[in-house]
Amino acid sequence: MEGATTNISYNVLDRNVHERKLGDKVAFYWEGNEPGDEKTVTYRELLQQVCKFANVLKSQGVKKGDRVSIYMPMVVELVVAMLACARIGAVHSIVFAGFSAESLCERIMDSQCCILITADGFYRGDKLINLKLIADEALQKCRDKSFTVEKCIMLKHLTKEDEALSGSVSPPAKRACPDLQQEKQKERVRKVRPPPQVPWNPEIDMCWHSLIGEESEECDPVWCDSEDPLFILYTSGSTGKPKGVLHTVSGYMLYTAATFKMVFDYHPDDVYWCTADIGWITGHSYITYGPLANGATSVLFEGLPTYPDVSRMWEIVDKYHVSKFYTAPTAIRLLMKYGSEPVQKYKRTSLKILGTVGEPINPEAWQWYYSVVGEKRCPVVDTFWQTETGGHVMTPLPAATPMKPGSATFPFFGVVPAILNESGEELEGPSEGYLVFKQPWPGVMRTVYGNHERFETTYFKKFPGYYVTGDGCRRDKDGYYWITGRIDDMLNVSGHLLSTAEVESALVEHEAVAEAAVVGRPHPVKGESLYCFVTLNDGINYNQKLEAELKKQVREKIGAIATPDYIQNAPGLPKTRSGKIMRRVLRKIACNERDLGDVSTLADSSVIEHLFENRCCTAV
Ligand code: WTA
Description:
Blueprint: E1 5-6, H1 8-19, E2 26-31, E3 38-42, H2 43-59, E4 67-71, H3 76-87, E5 91-94, H4 101-111, E6 115-119, E7 122-124, E8 127-129, H5 131-144, E9 151-155, H6 180-192, E10 205-207, H7 208-213, E11 224-225, E12 229-235, E13 243-248, H8 249-263, E14 271-274, H9 281-293, E15 297-301, H10 312-320, E16 324-327, H11 329-336, H12 341-344, E17 353-356, H13 363-373, E18 380-382, E19 417-420, E20 431-437, E21 447-448, H14 452-460, E22 467-475, E23 481-486, E24 490-493, E25 496-499, H15 500-508, E26 513-523, E27 527-536, H16 544-557, E28 566-569, H17 583-590, H18 606-613
Parallel strand pairs: 2-15, 4-5, 4-6, 5-12, 6-9, 9-10, 14-15, 14-16, 16-17, 17-18, 27-28
Antiparallel strand pairs: 1-11, 2-3, 7-8, 12-13, 13-21, 19-20, 20-22, 22-23, 24-25, 26-27
Bound molecules: 5'-O-[(S)-ethoxy(hydroxy)phosphoryl]adenosine (WTA).
């Protein structure tokens, strides 16, 4: 579509309001961290807010092509900020609000952003995150490296709009609500919640509300070329330095709109809920762009699945009559630990389709999701894709594709997969090897920001002529594709290629196990041996009998070749903030290597020491 012009904010807002007459339709039901903290935004209101904020950005001198860093919690204003950038042709670079000052600094510098948009702070469950404080630290780190960001816009999320900022502010501003129960809840929040710390530098800091108040509700979209950049989103790379994945306007718009519509079988009366954070690609594509392009109504959730209790998700499903629900296997496994009772407290009769994304889903978790959450009424769409692919590339179409638990089934329209062996030969029929794609599709990334060479070497060098996903894949006799996990998570035990996911799935099938992570540990005879970390369900103790059962389970499920050599009881696993297990760190623990490399993406570093202290030294 090169040479064509468009604007994505026009397509997801103006077109819906003016041509499709959806102005009064709800775009987002925002549900805060605290139950009862909620607000509703229609398409018309969203358009007005986006225009106002786009005018703010223009007043601050932001122009087409400029990069804007956004570091915000899950609030409607995050969507407003991203669409305001898109409206004026500026390139947003959203950094997940769980990242550290160091990571934010690195991303700001790599993308050479001219302005940072952030918020005072937010709560994740009971934990206060002083976002502005971290943002300031990041800007200081940039300055130390001779890169100055001259402007920072801060949203008052926990602070009252008219409250002066003096470094200490009063507790969260809450909206009036007639419900007594909810009032009590808010009362509790007001009393016990300390306010965020908000450092303020009048030279660079500006307040979202005071800026937006003066601006007009109209702002003409800046027409962009189809191939103009829309956003940069950083994803981890094997070298440790994150890659700025760059997506462009039209292809990404078309692809997210089409996949959202077909994969979730979108109907106008749906209420759709994707539990991802907008700071990841899933939130970009399937909270903001895909749903809005279709004029859909979505839930935007700020909180946690376990706060204030483990029924929260299902409470929200009933509250908004959610019909399409999209989450990650890690969330499913977490909730599975608590059994079916917290789920069954709620009706969930509105649910029609369940989706998963982010990692291979083990058949046991799939079954629980399908049977307990969906009561066997709802097709499960296991969507395989990547930050790089922009949208779903391997996925069932609900109710049309016969499901196999754990398989992402078949390619989406226009996607042509192949399975290659180590020498780059295409394998036919049932086979296992590298998953690659043979032709581009509209949503594929266009480059690594500022480093096109890295784009070429990462994705196209190993097998010339193919896009290399980095994932392993098996095709069964019926032609179904089974993602086996990242190739770097493959193990070679006595010449047999094993996927860690396969062994983990076998372990997790045992009723005592909540989660498992398997890594290779060098072995003088076998090449690699299997070192397994297992997290047990609540109330279960680890003992030798259980250990023997687990070994037997894996042997029975996969074969003697996959018998675990080491099993370690791991009450906690090292995970990234998006919930991915950091196997690289586990490999070091298995080998008792203390030099862990870059662990800045680790969500909770306290688990590491515990794992080192309780290492298995002798094979089981
Ligand atoms: C993994 C997330 C199996 C895969 C959208 C991929 C999956 C990486 C699935 C990309 C799935 C994602 N089944 N594996 N349904 N979905 N993955 O960039 O290893 O955060 O390469 O994008 O997640 O992660 P990313």
